[in-house]
User: Fold Farnesyl diphosphate synthase from Candidatus Thiothrix phosphatis.
Amino acid sequence: MLNVHTRLQTWQKRIEGVLEAVLPPPSAHPARLHEALRYSVLNGGKRMRPLLTYATGEALGIAPDHLDIPAASIELVHVYSLVHDDLPAMDNDDLRRGKPTCHKAFDEPTAILVGDALQALAFQILASHPGMNASPAQRLRMIEQLAQAAGSRGMVGGQAIDLAAVGRELTEVELENMHIHKTGALIRASVLMAAYSVEAVDARCLQQLDHFAKCIGLAFQVQDDILDVESDTRTLGKTRGVDAAAGKPTYPSIIGLAASKAKLQDLYDEAMSALLSFDESANLLREIAEFTVKRIR
Amino acid sequence: MLNVHTRLQTWQKRIEGVLEAVLPPPSAHPARLHEALRYSVLNGGKRMRPLLTYATGEALGIAPDHLDIPAASIELVHVYSLVHDDLPAMDNDDLRRGKPTCHKAFDEPTAILVGDALQALAFQILASHPGMNASPAQRLRMIEQLAQAAGSRGMVGGQAIDLAAVGRELTEVELENMHIHKTGALIRASVLMAAYSVEAVDARCLQQLDHFAKCIGLAFQVQDDILDVESDTRTLGKTRGVDAAAGKPTYPSIIGLAASKAKLQDLYDEAMSALLSFDESANLLREIAEFTVKRIR
Assistant:
């Protein structure tokens, strides 16, 4: 277990280095925009998506240096979505990871532009970064996957569904639909893009990994909602019950706390079943699943 | 001349059809977001960038159907930049082409998401649209070009320079630097991406086209600034002197009106010179250059 924890930390450090390297230097013109880009990205996030990419790679026998650029591109898209999500017109958040959000540290127009530039950078590195060992066809497949996951039928669509849901009663199916778009699409891309690094991916193996990703993506959200009810504010790092108070639909508010916990367990079991045909090389993926359901913040 | 005008109109209709086809249907889930995407894109814009792509294709002997997707992807990026530029935190514009801007017709969060989704869609169609006749390597080269032109060292960088310039005295060099980023980068991409449709582009020919694009991109801005001073409000469709009044630096305010007109003529001459080695197949490019400097709004 310690070994797994250490290795996840090693990969977190690794992706920090990759992100640092793909971002234009702070001296690049215009300097203030580039300073804001680096401020927003290099903030010590959990890097869950890149970790999933690396762990999927390990399950498929792909070396991490082949996955640095795909992993970084997904994280850039994730960060851009947070920067835009924090804007006054959206969630209006002043703090992220205890630091002022981009529009607070800089200003609102800069935060809009930071998000826009990060999305462009994600596709730019996938298309052309020389450190990426992939054929043009593989690069294209990843770009397609990321664009789809990020777009109006993926993550951005999920944001729109979320906005429309505030203050409205959702069914469990509607709530699930929102999460599948808003966070699920990018989490699936984190796993699938690693698989696309293999020249010829076995279709059945791809489907199992995809199913695993769907389950833990949703499990992450269910656990998030449970923590919003159960965890104390100090552990959570944000105010307990804040989602429920904001009129945001949550699993406990729709199906109750006990059913939410049962659902979390079901999703965990299903995620583990999806990996049954994988040997111990998939152990890091299994650890990430376990971390997802057991995390306390 | 009538022939040229008719053909430009034919291409305008053509790109409307392509844009209409690549956008998800208004019934796609989430419907309101997709309605807003279509509202923002299908608004009868001038489509200057797609026209440049098609006209460059004609100069190089590339059929328009090979250029539909590159042309559409550039226009999607251009439209996203307008939607974000119109936001209250940016230029705060209520009207575009006489119709309410996206955040007025819908709301501010939707407008942020519309811009984000359009950018993703641009890269998605370049990566995977089956109607595009290009090798994987050609597609990648276009994606790289578009991402670079759109990103923090291109269009978005230009927006940041523009924001920082309001109310400040700029030199002519600084003003030019702003335009080269803000609009020049995407106009260059419109020409270069057409050229990348040719399997092996002649380097000298590419450089001439690039130089042509740089000149007319800047000429367009100089003429814009001149119109802001000279045209009456009714012809312009927006309030005369509005840029100068907003404290935005313009060519007439920095180098004077006469020098601005001389600069416009120089840029036009330089653009025409860049096409000297092209035969009559480049006549539409020449017409676009002439239109750029002679337009009255």
